[in-house]
Amino acid sequence: MSVTVPRDLRTGRTIWLDRRLPHIPKSQLGRSASCDVLVIGAGISGSIIAEALSDAGLQVALVDRRGPLQGSTAASTALLQYEIDTPLSVLGERIGRDRAERLWRRSRLAVDALRQRTRVLGIDANQATRDSLYLSGNVLDAAGLEAETLARKRAGFEVTFLKPPAVFETYGIKGRSAIVGRDNYMADPRLLAAGYLNAAISRGARLYAPVEVTDISASHSGVVVSTSDGPEIKARHLVFATGYEMPKGVPRKGNKIISTWAISTKPQPRNIWPTGSIIWEASDPYLYIRTTPEGHVICGGEDAEIADAEERDALNDEKTQALVRKLGGLLPMIDPTATHSWSGSFGDSKTGTPTIGPVPRMPNCYAAMGYGGNGITFSMMAGQMLRGMISGVGDADSDLVSFTRRF
Ligand SMILES: Cc1cc2nc3c(=O)[nH]c(=O)nc-3n(C[C@H](O)[C@H](O)[C@H](O)COP(=O)(O)OP(=O)(O)OC[C@H]3O[C@@H](n4cnc5c(N)ncnc54)[C@H](O)[C@@H]3O)c2cc1C
């Protein structure tokens, strides 16, 4: 028995598998092991959290039942945006303006911190900074986008509202208004995660994989974990960074598993729109587009309320064709032919916001559930917040993402 529900997380060949990962050293799980913090899951979330905790001087161990970076992280399109799925003006109506602004600002901080920390650690993950273009759609029309622009400006964000002629002139996209957001980020998610994981390992963190956690006994004096390999691991604290394989006994907070699809094209640097901005839509479901520094175009979306992987994969051809058609329709200057296509499970969240913090009724256990389209931004937010919580100094925004919040 596992402590998480196993899933077939992804299918197909992603563009990231074309690049070799650096060596990631593993440790052998001896008779038993102990550490300050045990992180379950060695994807982008576990890697960033382990890096942050080891930087705080804590002795960290990670376990992963598959091996590092083989879960959802390998399927991510890795648009690293501060703009949360739910527009600030809409989120404000749902949870109050003050909380919505704090969440958006914290998300901005997480993207900036990710960029800065990646630079400080000297990680080469084919990363780049890009503006974003948020197109009008069925969630926000032109008037809604103007109101959203005002809401963002009031909260201190540097944004510009563009009318359709300006959008067409700069980006070649017809009939849409848009908001330009500044200084988002993008990277190869596997290389990014490998960089953080290796930084943690170089400070003494140990990675045990493939090792599955099969049982957890949590008390106020610490946590004892049983593993598929036999030996136990004792830890003062435990962090669930298990992605979309949700831990049993941990409240779901309204999160659910759906399906999503993505494609990438050949490199076509000459066809890329002038700023190479990340493009996404104020629609539900939405289409999103990014480039790589070499000029590949990556496009994702077509989300469907399907949790079953077989049902998801039965739609792969149809969804790939839909993405190719929509990409070509929106950006006539590019060749939308897919060289890679893939599908994945995806964790949806009602407000597009994550759940991070102490798990109710599981003493010394924490979870980083970065559900929503900004999963990797939330991995960084989790790294920052859990560092504060576990080292005892707390985090001023923890109420916004806690299990006990009322939204
Ligand atoms: C197609 C697609 C596109 C996406 N695009 C974006 C995007 O553009 N921007 C963005 O920010 N986010 C995006 N996301 C979301 C983002 O990729 C995820 O939030 C992120 O990869 C999750 O990382 P993780 O480390 O939490 O999970 P994972 O990478 O899945 O890692 C969790 C690990 O936990 C391990 N595990 C689980 N249970 C156990 C156990 N019992 N014992 C041991 N190990 C266990 C698993 O083996 C797995 O390796 C996208 C996701 C998909 C699928």
Entry keywords:
alpha+beta, single chain, 18 strands, FAD/NAD(P)-binding domain, 407 residues, binds flavin-adenine dinucleotide, globular, 2 domains, D-Amino Acid Oxidase, Chain A, domain 2, 10-stranded mixed sheet, 8-stranded mixed sheet
Question: Any overview of this molecule?
Answer:
- With 407 residues, the protein is an alpha+beta fold.
- The chain has two domains: 10-75 and 190-253 and 352-400, FAD/NAD(P)-binding domain, CATH 3.50.50; 128-186 and 255-348, 2-Layer Sandwich (D-Amino Acid Oxidase, Chain A, domain 2), CATH 3.30.9.
- Helices cover 29% and strands 26% of the residues.
- It is built from nine helices and 18 strands.
- The strands form two sheets. Strands 1, 4, 5, 6, 7, 12, 13, 14, 15 and 16 form a ten-stranded mixed β-sheet that branches.
- α1 runs parallel beside α6 and α2 crosses α3 (97-120).
